[in-house]
Design goal:
Oligomer: single chain
Strand order of the largest sheet: 12-11-10-9-14-13
Helix content: under 10%
Radius of gyration: 18 Å
Number of strands: 15
Distance between the termini: 25 Å
Shape: elongated
Structural class: mainly beta
Number of helices: 1
Length: about 200
Amino acid sequence: MESEDGVAPTRTDSVLVARFGAAHGVRGEIKLWSFTADPLAVADYGPLESKDGKRQFVINSLRPAKDFLVARVAGIDDRNAAETLRNVELYLPRERLPPIDEDDNWYYADLVGLAALAVDGAAIGTIAAVHNFGAGDIIEIAPVGGGKTLLLPFTQAAVPAVDVTAGRVVVVVPTEEDIPPLKGEGRSPERSGGGQGGVGGNHE
């Protein structure tokens, strides 16, 4: 799958930890998807920032719902105000997050800029960004030859190996034969282990 847009700049000094969704109710609450290992912990690190660092958001309360969190944000008092935050990605400065000691865990921000290689070692491109639109993590790869970026699910099947120290990841680009028909019975790839976005899991 290819992106129609160009590659957006990614903040390497900050880590993507959450994303706002749609308004929830009429009193200013808003859906929130947390990418930290403990989803509720996203409210414990202080004010969250927009991607460009120009806006800050203080979460006054956070509660779990069916498959997302519901947040009350300082200064957001009605549904209209909450809707203006839809799809805003939320970041934290790296220094506010605990260091990662394990070799098989990483912050997703650390994946940006790594070389993306095929299983046979052929160069495919460079990781431009890691996204989460609510249905799972996705890596965006800028191809070696330029052009539209490639989007792949960040799963064990599509990304079988990650080596931040060596500066590379191994990816499996699907062929047309690998893509199931719209009404087929093919199974969806399973999520890889570990955290959901702020911290990646191991790919053993």
